[in-house]
Each structure stands twice: as C-alpha cells, then as structure tokens.
Design goal:
It is built from 13 helices and no strands. By secondary structure, the protein is mainly alpha-helical. The two termini are about 30 Å apart.
Length: about 375
C-alpha cells in the first residue's frame, strides 16, 4: 500500500511537470506563430482569447468528466489534445487555423489543470501529509525547464517545429512513466454537472483569483514596468519576472515542509503580508536591486497560497471536490485573464504604479480572508 501511494505521488508530480513543460513550449512558440501567420499585435491579442476561452469552457466540464471517468482518462485525453495542437501552433500559416488550434490547446490545458488538481487532492488525502505545494512546484519547474530547453534548441539552430516535436517526445516519455499510476477510479458525485462556487469554496476561489492576478501582472507587466516606469535598460526588463518565477519555484518546493511546521493558513496570512511588502519595494524602489528584491518577496509570498487553497478544497464539505476544483480553477484562471487587462486599463487612465497599488490592496483582502478562514476552522 505504501509503495502504491509513493507511485501515485510520483505520477502526480510528473503530470504537473508535463503541464508546465507544455505551457512553456507554447510561450516560446508565440513569436513564431505571429510571424507564420503575418498578424499584428492587435490580432494576436484577439486570437489569444481563443486559448483562454478554450480553457474556460473545458474547466467546468472537467469536474463531471473526472467524476464519471476518473482522473486517468481525463488527463490522458487532455494530453493527447495538447500533443496534437502544440506542433500545429508552430507551423500553421492561417489565422483561422491558429485560432482553432489555440482553442483546442486551451481545452487541453483546462482539462489537465483541473484533473491533475483533483488527483493531487486525493493523493494528498491518502498520504495524510502536505504535498500540494510540491506538486505545484513541479509545474513551476516544468515552466523553467521547458523554456530553457526550447531556448537552447533554438540557439543550436533547430527549426521551431523540430524543437517543439522534441519537447513533445519528452512529454510522451513522461506520460508513459506516469500512466500506470494515475488514478483510474471514477468518483460519482451528487449535484449539477456545472456548479457555481458557494460558501467557503467561493472564498477559496476569490483568493485564487487575486493571486493568479498577481502572477499575471508579474508575467505581462514586470518588464514594461521596469523599463517604462523605472527607466531601466530594456535588456534588464526580463529580470523582474525571472526573479519572481525563481522565488515562486523555490517557495513551492520548500512549501510542504514549511506548511507542516507552521500550518497552512498561517502560511497564507504571512504570504499575503510578504507580498504586500514586496509590492511596496517595487512601487517605491529606485535601484534595480530594490526592485528585484520586491519581485522576489512577491514570488515568495504568493508561492504557496494557491496550493493551500487546493488543500482546503479537499477539507471542505460545502461542495464535492470534483465540482469545487473546476469552480476554483475557473475563478483563478479568470484572474490570469482579467488581471493584466485591468492593470492596462488602470495604467492607461493613471499609471502603472497606481495599478500595482490596486493589486497590492487586493492582497490585503486576501490577508483578511485568510484570517477569517482560520477563525472559521477553529470555530468549526
């Protein structure tokens, strides 16, 4: 039994790693997709909505599918969709085809995101110990490794299609390793196939929405902020997100140990405080080391909040887990989509610094909600 649980954990880690690898592969493909189709930035931005739309329509469906068929089948189908769509994204020359494959890719991302988190909750419950941060940490590792490998392949002169196919061969190998120990049991649940988050699940979803908004802000606006608002050299613009991502990965890989020592919700409370302090340095800092220190604190502070929220999904009784996970994941994904756009709106009418102040204040809301959750659990 112990060996089986260990195998379940390793398989779950590999699936999170795969999701990170595939997402990073697409991130490197983007400029090639734009060049291949001959579209401008405005059209690319519109087409990217197809990816988000695909994820948003598949996430609510992932719960009922996982409930009926088990995590294993849903993860395999999602992986197959991504394996078919990803190489096509690297060579299609028609904007319409690009939109179609972005929609397909988004559907695969949405399905695997929900199914792997359902599996992670079950595996963590079976182990009776904190594992969620480590699982999410492997997603971050996959992102770093995927981006590094793709960049390395291209630097060696590989064609983008060849580099993408090499990455997907790695994904197929990893899927083969994890296939046997993915959870195949169906988990019937009562209730509607599509559920709106309510009660404590809604609170968990709002917290994920805010934290994903912070992540989206760091991804899409950190370089622009350092160059335009802080007048750093353009060659240094990428350092903000690099430091943020490294801190996120480090925080998640050590998060299970920290959570086991100090408690899950205390980690969220302290994480929210650290994130706000990080934003203070980013907003008020002038020197590069101060700004990068701020991004490091933001990454550390945010790193374990979302994993803890998924851990809490496994403990709540308001909604079945297979419905609660897609509900929370969908809310979080909306944060990734809406956050950067909202930042742009505020920056256009005021400044990027004021937009960052707004996001920092939302993290204060996360701090308050985490305290309320902690009191609620103690009262219960």
């Amino acid at each position: 039994m112990l060996k089986r649980h260990m195998n379940d954990r390793h398989s779950t880690r590999i699936v999170f790693l795969i999701a990170g690898l595939v997402t990073a592969t697409w991130a490197v493909i983007v400029p090639f997709a734009k060049a291949n189709t001959g579209i401008n930035d405005a059209v690319l931005g519109t087409l990217l909505l197809c990816l988000g739309f695909g994820a948003l329509i598949s996430m609510p469906a992932a719960g009922p599918l996982t409930s009926r068929y088990g995590c294993k089948k849903v993860i395999i189908v999602a992986a197959l969709i991504m394996l078919i769509a990803t190489p096509c994204l690297s060579f299609v020359t028609s904007p319409i085809l690009l939109a179609f494959f972005l929609l397909s890719f988004g559907i695969g991302i949405g399905l695997i995101d929900c199914a792997m988190n359902v599996q992670a909750i079950i595996v963590e419950q079976n182990a009776n110990k904190a594992l969620m941060s480590g699982f999410h940490g492997l997603y971050s590792v996959g992102g770093i490794v995927g981006a590094g490998l793709m960049t390395g392949f291209l630097a060696l002169g590989m064609h983008i299609v060849v580099a993408t196919c090499v990455m997907l061969l790695l994904v197929i190998f990893l899927m083969y390793i994890s296939f046997q120990h993915l959870l195949s049991e169906a988990m019937p649940s009562e209730g509607p196939p599509f559920a709106i988050p309510k009660g404590i699940v809604l609170v968990l979803g709002i917290i994920c929405f805010v934290v994903f908004m912070v992540e989206g802000t760091a991804l899409d606006w950190s370089a622009v902020y350092l160059v335009d608002a802080k007048h750093m050299d353009a060659s240094l613009g990428g350092l903000g997100y690099t430091v943020f991502a490294a801190a996120m990965t480090l925080g998640r890989l050590t998060g299970d140990y920290v959570i086991g020592k100090v408690g899950a919700l205390r980690v969220v409370i302290v994480g929210a405080i650290v994130t706000v302090i990080g934003f203070y340095f980013v907003i008020t800092g002038v020197e590069l080391y101060t700004l990068l220190g701020g991004y490091f604190l933001i990454g550390c502070g945010c790193s374990n909040i979302v994993p803890v929220m998924f851990n809490q999904i496994g403990k709540q009784k308001t909604m079945p887990q297979v419905l609660a996970v897609p509900a929370v994941t969908t809310l979080g994904y909306l944060g990734i989509l809406a956050g950067p756009a909202g930042i742009g709106f505020i920056a256009h009418h005021s400044s990027l610094s004021h937009a960052f102040v707004f996001v920092a204040m939302l993290m204060v809301v996360v701090f308050i909600m985490a305290i309320a959750l902690q009191k609620n659990l103690k009262a219960g």
